[in-house]
Structure formats: C-alpha cells, structure tokens
Amino acid sequence: MNCEEAQGLLPAYGDGELDLPHALALERHLDGCPACAAALREQRALSQAVRSTPYHRAPDTLRARLRAQLPPETAAPAVVAAPAPAAKTYRRRDWSRWAMPIAAGIALAVGLNVMLSTQRAGETLRNELVAGHVRSLQAEHLSDVASSDQHTVKPWFSGKLDYSPPVRDLTAQEFPLLGGRLDYIAQRQVAVLIYRHRKHTINLYIWPGKNGDTAPESHGSEGYSLVHWRRDGMEFWAVSDLNGEELRQFAQLQIAAVTDKAANVPNT
Amino acid sequence: MTDQEQARRFEAIAGPHLDAAYNLARWLTREPHDAEDVVQEAYLRAFRFFGGFRGGDGRAWLLTIVRNTFYTWLEQRRHHQSEVEYNDENIGLHTQENCGDPALHGTDPEKLLLRAADQQLVESALLRLGPESREILVLRELEELSYKEIAEIVGVPLGTVMSRLSRARLQLRHQIEAMDRGL
Questions:
Q1: What was the ipTM of the complex prediction?
Q2: Which of A81, A186, A236, B141 lies 20 to 30 Å from B96 when distance is taken between CA atoms?
Q3: Comparing C-alpha atoms, which of A235, A161, A172, A231 is closest to residue A204?
C-alpha cells in the first residue's frame, strides 16, 4: 500500500468503519510510515476536539411546547405561558408519559434476552451464528474495529452496546485477536470478537444471558464447529471451520484467561 | 388507529430523540431560539408524516426531518435577509497533502492537539464552518452515528459521507489555525 492509498483509507480507519482486510493492510503501512501515522493522530485529535464541544440538550420548555401541540387528550392548555411551578408539575407528567414506552422497551429487550438463552433459540440461533460467521469471511462488514490490542477493542464496544464483553488476546496461545465487530443475532445487537488460529478464523459471539456457568459444549452445523459456554452471566458462542477439538481448546483458553485476569488484575 | 393511539406511538418513537433533534438544530442554526423553531416545525412535520414511518431507526428518521426543515428554514431566511456567508468557500483548501515527509504536512499534530484542547476555540471554529460540514461533524462526533446512518440522513452515498467528513475535518483544522493566528 502506498501513501496515497493509505490517506484515502485513514478517515474510515480512524472512524472504525474500515473492513478487516483493509485495516490490517493499512496498519502494516502505518508501522513504517511516520507521515501517515501523524496524519492519523491529527485526524483523531480533531475528532476528539469536536467531541469536547457542548451537546445541546432540548430545553424543558420546548419539550412542553411540543407536547401541547399534539392533538390528543392531554393537549395541556397554556403551557407556553405557564408560570414556573405549573411548568414544573407539567414536566413531571410529561416524563411519566415517556416512561411507559421506555419501560415497555426495556421489558421487551429483557424478554428477547431471556428468549436468547432458552432452548427455543437452538437450531435457529446456530444457523444465524453460522450465517454471521460466513458473512464475516466475505469481509463485507463495515463498522469493524481492527486491532490486536484488547485495550483498543474493549472500549470500542462501549457506547455501542449496553454491556461490556470481556476481551482477551490469546496470541501467546496461538489464537491472536484480530478485532471486533457488531452483529445482529436474534434481533439483537451483539459483540463479536475475531480470532485466528493458523489460517482459520474464529468468530466469538458474546451477549448477556443467564447466570450459572456452563462448560463448553460442542455443536456442529453445516460443516462448521460451534462451541457454547456461559460465564459470569454472559453467553459465549465460538464459530469456526476449525475442528471441534481445537475450538473446544479455544473455549478453555478463553475461560482460563478470564478467570486468571479476574484473579490477578481486577478492574481491567 | 385513533388520534390518541397515533399520538402515543409518535411520542414513544420521537420523544426519546428530542435531545438529538435539538442538538443538531442548535448546531445548524447556531441560535437557541432558531433551534427551537426548527425542532418545533420538524416535530410537526414528523407527526404529519408519521403514518409513513415504517419502523426502524427513529432517530435517523427524525434527524432527517430536522435537517430538511433546517434547509427550508435557511432558504426562507435567505429571502428575507442576506445571510452571513459561511466559510466553506472562503478557507483556502489545500489538496491532499504530500506523504512521506512529515515536514510537508501543514501542521504538527502535537501542536494541533494543544489548540484542539481549547474547547471554546474549537466551538467557535466549528460554528464558522458551513452547514454541510457542521452537520456531518455533529452527526459523526456528537451523535456517534455510523457512516451508513449518516448516509441515510444526509441522503448521499457512503463514499460521499467519508469524503465530506475528511473535508470537514480539514476545514476545521484550517479554521482553528486561522483563529489561532487571530483571524
């Protein structure tokens, strides 16, 4: 990759929008090109600068005014001109009206979550996981974060998901971490970590599930290996074209890494 | 569906995104009062067209309407008064920098970093950019939307999102530098 190509890819790379193969090629270029590396730092500095500017939240008066414009029952009169105390009570009522749908949304999300962890998911879920794995191999994914650094991959998920998947690099055990991705499984956004073993890619899907740890359990589907286990309230599904035995070994390493980490270095 | 049901559904979908709508309008209009007008008009339009909303991303749908409302509002205003010209065209844009020699780069990233830490400077610089640059930076950095979502809202292809973002960041950099020199 020359500098011109690299410069063209930098924006997408800095924004976490570059697909894995391009990102890896670009990283190789950046390692040997101080000028492009500097351009990336500059892009990140500007990005950060914009993020430091104020986020303007809607004033409560506007919220109240909008509510008053809607046709139905509580098209509360004279809200705009209402004196402060009245506006305050109105606001509370206003919020309670938003609260119901939000609570329903949360209940729905929790419901989906429970469904994911039950048997019903079974066959369909495994098919979805394999489909996701195959898609990832075709490398048509945007929104990848490509990095072998677990401290880059983990923060990338925060803000995109309402949970924080454990991210462990297993390079020393010959399962190097390649990056992370968001995927849709059972109508839910889930974290996916990408590992490699020899020439085989492993997709590790992680989402919150039931409590109660389980040992790795192997499944097969359409010529792919799947291994499922549960740890610390998280569901783990590893999918690969590796043979079942090697994938189980990967699962054991994952479990051991999480356990070691928790024992040695809390809060990482 | 009764009006009441319709209104309740609308609130459930549009309500949670009011902050996002206002933030975008505020950065686009640059004035709190104008931002409220634009959001109010946008929500009225959104409610009117709500029957056509087929589900999906409520935030993207609303932000699209806020954006369109803003441009209509801007158009109307231009009829009434001569707008202060935005700086999109005024800032001399350098073409793609030469690569290979750090000295050829316009700025030293570390120096830029220092200036970029001045939040007020960055805010004023951002407000001096044209609406096209402001909107893309706000959607990307403050709303943290993906290229795909931005492409939907702005109504351009993915590649255009990327090139506009690059251009906007370059303009922001030049604006920060210009202001730093007291211009």
A1: 0.80
A2: B141
A3: A235
